[in-house]
Design brief:
31% of the residues lie in helices and 17% in strands.
């Protein structure tokens, strides 16, 4: 019986994941702040919409792999976020990104372990960073979002703060001229009683699209008639 139980354990349960800002993380974030100041002219608005304590989901559009840096550097609290499992294969990278608050997700099919770990982040009153689209848009505009963010918010009654980022696709292209990166935090979206995950997802994405330039709104460019976006 014991052998059967152990066989069902997820290998990720053997690793240590953090729910606080470790000393290594603090040092790395400080170094990233200096490094990215060389390439990024960052403008942040709407910080008053971000709660300074308690569980919160920050839901952001996803253009490039660099999005996570202005996302974290713009907030006064550590973000904990999913990273594709391949990033954790390298032992050194594994240690670094786990200290940075990342945890692995297998993107082929539903990853129950990653979903449950995200719920643990919220249960500990922390900030969960999510990209609802699940993958990078690569400049094609917002794609159809998955319902995972909404399901977590509904299950835990956690507010969602939409974050719109533009300019990360210009990193390093015009050096020494810095890329203009704009970060906008919108008012929290609260789950409504009886709301479905799909309805909350649409509400989130149309709200997020409203803060992006028209060419980045993608499939959420036109809000359906009678749709209550707030």
């Amino acid at each position: 019986m014991e052998l059967t139980a152990n066989a069902n354990l997820d290998p990720r349960d053997q690793k240590r994941f953090y729910f606080h800002a470790t000393p290594l993380r603090k040092g790395l974030v400080a170094a990233m702040r200096v490094f990215f100041s060389l390439f990024m002219d960052r403008h942040v608005s709407g910080l008053e919409n971000f709660p300074l304590d308690g569980p919160v989901i920050v839901a952001c559009n996803h253009v490039t792999n660099f999005d996570v840096f202005p996302m974290q550097l713009s907030l006064p609290r550590p973000i904990f976020y999913m990273g594709k499992a391949d990033l954790f294969r390298n032992p050194v990278m594994d240690v670094v990104i786990r200290n940075l608050g990342a945890f692995p997700v297998e993107r082929d099919g539903k990853d129950v372990w990653a979903y449950n770990h995200a719920l643990k982040v919220l249960a500990r009153g922390q900030t969960l960073g999510m990209f609802p689209e699940g993958t990078r848009s690569r400049g094609r505009g917002l794609g159809v979002a998955k319902t995972g963010v909404a399901r977590m918010a509904l299950e835990t009654n956690t507010p969602i703060v939409p974050m719109a980022i533009t300019g990360t696709d210009k990193f390093f292209r015009g050096f020494p001229r810095r890329a203009l990166v704009t970060v906008i935090l919108l008012p929290p979206i609260l789950p409504k009683p009886g709301e479905t995950a799909l309805a909350l997802t649409d509400r989130l994405m149309f709200t997020l699209a409203s803060a992006l330039p028209p060419h980045m709104r993608g499939v959420y460019a036109e809000m359906p008639k009678g749709f209550g976006g707030k």
